Structure formats: structure tokens, C-alpha cells
Amino acid sequence: MSEAASEELGYEQARDRLVEVVRELEAGGLSLEQSLALWEKGEKLAKVCERHLEGARERIEAALASVEDETGNGQ
Predict the structure, then answer these.
(1) What was the pLDDT predicted at 64?
(2) With contact defined as beta carbons under 8 Å apart, do 44 and 3 qualify?
(3) Directed axis angle between helix 32-71 and helix 11-27, to 10°?
(4) Which domains does the chain have, with CATH numbers?
(5) Whole-model pTM?
(6) 60 φ, ψ to 5°?
(7) Are 46 and 18 in contact (CB under 8 A)?
(8) What is the DSSP string of the chain?
């Protein structure tokens, strides 16, 4: 999977693919090169998940700040 392709994945897709990568690594039986390639793929997928979660966190914080401003409780 290319870097650009992993960037386009939604959170759930990236998470599901990351789970598959972990299962393959845990199953063993791979060569060192195969294991390293899977590990790198997993790292990219984890970063995609982290970006999605950070974006969601920012949206939630902005929404909460907006509600606090509207109700006057933000002081």
C-alpha cells in the first residue's frame, strides 16, 4: 500500500487493516523482510488512525467551546 493510498483511508478502514497486519505478524512464519514490510505498513496505518483521532478530538473540543460560549459558562 502506498503512502498516498493509506492517507485516503477512513479511520475504520485504517484500523481494520492495522488489525490484519497485527494478526499476520503475531501468526509468525514470515521472513524478516516480510515482517519488516508488514511492520512499516502497520506504522503508516497507525499514523493514519492517530490523525483521524486527533481531528475528531479537535472537533469535539471546538464544539464544547462553542456550547460553553453560548451558555456563558466559558468564563
Answers:
(1) 93
(2) yes
(3) 150
(4) 3-71 (1.10.287)
(5) 0.77
(6) -65, -45
(7) yes
(8) --HHHHHT--HHHHHHHHHHHHHHHHH----HHHHHHHHHHHHHHHHHHHHHHHHHHHHHHHHHHHHHHHHT---
Total number of residues shown for the chain: 75
What mean pLDDT is predicted for residues 62-74?
A: 82
Question: What CA–CA distances, in Å, run from 67 to 17, 35, 63?
Answer: 36, 48, 6
Whole-angstrom Cα Rg for the chain: 18
Dihedral angle sign, alpha carbons of residues 47, 48, 54, 57:
negative
Cell numbers found for residue 21: 497486519
